[in-house]
Amino acid sequence: MEEQTCCPRFDPEPWDEKTHEWSEKPFLTASMPVLFHMPFPWLINKTMTRLWETAQKYGIAPEMKDFLLLSQDPSPWTSLYYLALSGTHPDLEKETVTLSGTFVSKVFDGPYKNVPKFIGEMDTWLRGMGKSPKEHFFYFTTCPKCARIYGRNYMVDFARV
Question: Mind listing the domains of the chain with CATH numbers?
């Protein structure tokens, strides 16, 4: 019996080794407690659902072809999530941020525990091109169940340079 997937199959080509110029790109934000960068599974679904339902409620949810959910761990105790929006809404001023600048994306495939290794590889690759990474955001393209079914655990590192 074949297992059902909930995440679409990810195509790395549009994301691998690409440069993105963002000018006040709007994102709906949320924070979530983590333990040494490891999320609590029951909070992941709750946080993602809240972000998506809020964006839908205010009519600023992206089309699925434009879906982008970035993650950043500013400390071992907190993860920040950024859902790309199709616009802004005045009622969400406090929950919305904009990101501007040059971001370079690179696709990695491997277990979540390799994120520090992937950041090191990204930094080395960027420095080899004469670029200096300032901060990293990760796009985890599928949930753990779908990654297991597909046999690939793609993630995209967006480095602000």
Answer: 18-160 (3.20.80.10)
